[in-house]
Amino acid sequence: MKELEELRRQIDSIDEKIVELLAQRMRIVSQVGNVKRRLNQPLTDEKREEQVRLRWMSLAQKNGLPETMVDSLLNLIFLYSKIFEINPSFLKKVVVVGYGGMAKSLVSLFKLSSHEVIVTGRDPYKAEKLAKEFGYAYMDPAQASRWGEFVILALPPSGVLSDFVKGVFPHFSGKVVMDISSSKQAVYGYLEKASSEHGFSYVSVHPLFGPYLYPVGEKIAVIPSKTTKDVDEVIEFWRNCGLVPVKTTLEAHEKAMALVQVLPHFYMLGLSRSLEKLRKEFDVDFTQFETTNFREIYKVVKRVNELKSVILEIQEMNPFSREVRKAGMGELENLFHELDGEKK
Ligand SMILES: C=C(O[C@@H]1C=C(C(=O)O)C=C[C@H]1O)C(=O)O
C-alpha cells in the first residue's frame, strides 16, 4: 500500500510538470501567432509541423516510447496550438440562444477560444445556469442580440420557428445569424426570408458532432444563403474555434445527411428492435456474450435510442428520407435473398 502511494505521489509530481510545460508551450505558441499576424503569415505551417513531428519521433525512440503515442499526443497539441494562436482582434461577441446539449457544447468551444459570450433563451434561469457554468452572463434576448455580432440559434427546428424567435428578429438587424439544425428543410427558407426582411446576414451551419464538451477537431458544415454577406469570416470564426468548416450547399448537405444520418439511423433503429424481439423469443441475454464488433455496434444502438427524438425528427424532415430508406430496404432484401440462395 505504502509503495503504491509513493509511486502515485511521483506520478502526481510529474503530471504537474507536464501541465506546466504544456501551458508554457501554449504561451509561446500564442506569441508565434502574434509574429505571424505581423508578417501576414497563415497560422498553420505544415512544414514546421512535420519537423516537430520528426523531432518528437526521434526523441520518443531514444526514450523507449511508442510512435503511436507520440502521434496522438502531437495531433492534440497541434490542434490546441491553433486555438492559442488565434488573432485576438478576431474574437467575436457571440450570442447563444438556447441551453440544450448542443448549446453547451458550443459554449465550451467559445470559452476555449476566448470569445465573448452571452447566453439567452426563452427560460432565463436555464440560460443563466449554462452561462454561469462557463463564467459568462445572461441577457434578455433583445438586449443580447443588440450586443452581439454573431447570433447562434442553438434550438430545435420547432424553436427556430417559434414566436419567441420571431419576436427577436427585429433586433438581429446587421448581425450574422446562424441556425445549427441537422435538418435544414423547415428552417432554411424561413430564416433566409426573415433575414432579407429584417436585414441580417443568415448563414446556416450544422455541427457534425453530438452534444459533447470541447469538440475540438470535429467538422461543421457551413451553408451560405442569399443574404450571407461574408461567408469567409464565418468560416474563419469556426476554424478559430478549433472546428473544421466544410462549405457546402443546401441540397448537397441534405443529400449527404440522408446517407450519413437517415440511412444508418434507420438501420440502427431496426437493429435495436430486432434485438429486443429476438432477445425475448430466444430468451437469451446476449449482452453477456458481446464481441468486439458487437460492443461498438451496440454502443451506437444505445446512443441512437438516447437521441431518439432528434433522430426521428431527422427521419421526418430530410427530403430524401423516403428514397434512402427504400433503397436501404431494397438492399437488405437483396442481401436476404442472396444469403438464402447460398444456403440452398
Ligand atoms: C507554433 C506554430 O504554429 C503552428 C503550431 C505548431 C506547433 O504547435 O508546434 C507548429 C506549426 C504551426 O502549424 C509555429 O509555426 O511554430
Automatic annotation (TrEMBL):
Record-linked Pfam families: CM_2 (PF01817), F420_oxidored (PF03807)
SUPFAM superfamilies tied to this protein: 6-phosphogluconate dehydrogenase C-terminal domain-like (SSF48179), Chorismate mutase II (SSF48600), NAD(P)-binding Rossmann-fold domains (SSF51735)
Domain Chorismate mutase: 1-89
Gene Ontology biological process terms in this record: chorismate metabolic process; tyrosine biosynthetic process
Alphabetical keyword list: Isomerase, Oxidoreductase
Ranges in a coiled coil: none
Alphabetical list of SMART domains matching this protein: CM_2
The EC number(s) this enzyme carries: 5.4.99.5
The Prephenate/arogenate dehydrogenase domain, residue ranges: 92-344
An annotated Gene Ontology molecular function: NAD+ binding
InterPro entries reported for this sequence: 6-PGluconate_DH-like_C_sf, Chorismate_II_sf, Chorismate_mutase_arc, CM_dom_sf, CM_II_prokaryot, NAD(P)-bd_dom_sf, P5C_Rdtase_cat_N, Preph/Arog_dehydrog
Gene3D superfamilies (UniProt xref): Chorismate mutase, NAD(P)-binding Rossmann-like Domain
Name assigned to this protein: Chorismate mutase
Organism expressing this protein natively: Candidatus Aramenus sulfurataquae
Lineage per the UniProt record: Archaea, Thermoproteota, Thermoprotei, Sulfolobales, Sulfolobaceae
